[in-house]
Amino acid sequence: MAREVKKVVLAYSGGLDTSVILKWLTVAYGCEVVTFTADLGQGEELEPARRKAELMGVKQIFVEDLRETFVRDFVIPMFRANALYEGQYLLGTSIARPLIAQRQIEIARQVGADAVAHGATGKGNDQVRFELTYYALEPGIKVIAPWREWDLTSRTKLIEFAERHQIPIAKDKRGEAPFSVDANLLHSSSEGKALEDPWHEPEEFVYQRTISPEAAPDKPTTVEIEFERGDAVAIDGARLSPAKLLTRLNELGAANGIGRLDLVENRFVGMKSRGVYETPGGTILHAAHRGIESICLDRGAAHLKDELMPRYAELIYNGFWFSPERAMLQALIDKSQESCTGTVRCKLYKGGVRVVGRKSPHSLYSLAHVTFEEDSVYDQRDAAGFIKLNALRLRLLKRGGR
Where are the strands (E) in 350-392, listed by range? Predict the structure, then answer.
């Protein structure tokens, strides 16, 4: 086994797990390890990861700021679809994995690596998301998933391995963590340990990015979001890059207790899991995007999008971002957004987001048709024939059933 791999690109965070994996790869495979650390807006300083990799003898270290790429090429296209997994989850972790895996493959090509590795466990969804992307982009790549191979089956064993090989361990990692956290610019995700009992309400310290709705200001915040072809481009008249726009929405959402979700979901591998998610900016963006669609999309197009959305969301959750069916659905979704240009006004208050205004040069809303006052464009007598034609099959069904 040791000679099967010459060089591997590891998705590296600098934490206990991936630091142990880094050393384990050299021991188990006798190969050179290249580390890749992505800044997706997780809110942590990444230079310590670089220094730790250097300390452990890594010669090729990649630390990259991918925040704009993440939001522009992954988050924003997904939000055009109003994607929600199982009706609630805004897919914050799911949408990040394809980008990390894509860059791993690109780096592997660049440095001549014949393998890639990740730190996802054999119980979760992330192993699937990483590896489906690897194989979709580089079918012949060797994939190493240490959690499915080694015998380091507990945190105690990880720490013992680290100490045996003189791997630096942060002091707060020596004990049992109350829960694990994954974060990026779109969301934070907390799960495990103190959160494993779905009956137990999460303690306030679990929340990373929002104040509680109860502690939010008693005065609402109003924000105007401008859209072009379905994509948010400005807030309160200020045009912003995709990452900066989402950052600003995160600030507004966090200050108003918006975006908390306590969810028991169905993992792709078959088990149910409980997670606590915080998606402050994404929750606002989701509501605002539906607001612009409400006046710009034809009924048939809007309803078709809503029918397809669960399938699209499931593809992303399950790791099929680079599948042909996701690309096909994306083309349909993007086509639907051509007229979705305008402004939506939202009111943020104690954990809630309400759309309170919307306008567009392509609006399909016709005051002349819907007014309760006298009009000259709609003949109400036409509705009688419309109703009778739609009722015809029901009337025949009732008569035939006698």
Answer: 352-359
Annotation says 126 is catalytic: yes
Span 364-376, average pLDDT: 81
What's the confidence (pLDDT) of residue 89? Answer: 98
- The residues pairing with 359 across neighbouring beta strands, listed in sequence order, are 343
Q: Residues 50, 80, 97, 358: which is the catalytic one? A: 97
Q: Which of 51, 65, 180, 366 is catalytic?
A: 180
Catalytic residue, candidates 50, 80, 126, 339: 126
**Residue reference for tokens 């016709």:** 366
pTM of structure: 0.93
Region of residue 334 (left: phi > 0; alpha: psi -120 to 50; beta: else): alpha
Distance CA 41, CA 184 (A): 5
Q: What is the spatial distance between Cα 268 and Cα 262, in angstroms, rounded to a whole number?
A: 19
Would residue 180 show up in a list of annotated catalytic residues for this protein? Answer: yes
Sort 175 into a burial class: Cβ within 10 Å, 0-12 / 13-18 / 19+: exposed
- pLDDT for 177 equals 56
* Domains delineated in the chain: 7-77+91-176 (3.40.50.620), 181-359 (3.90.1260.10), 373-400 (no CATH)
**Cα distance between residue 136 and residue 267, in whole Å:** 21
Confidence check: pLDDT of 154 > 70: yes
The predicted pLDDT at position 3 comes to: 44
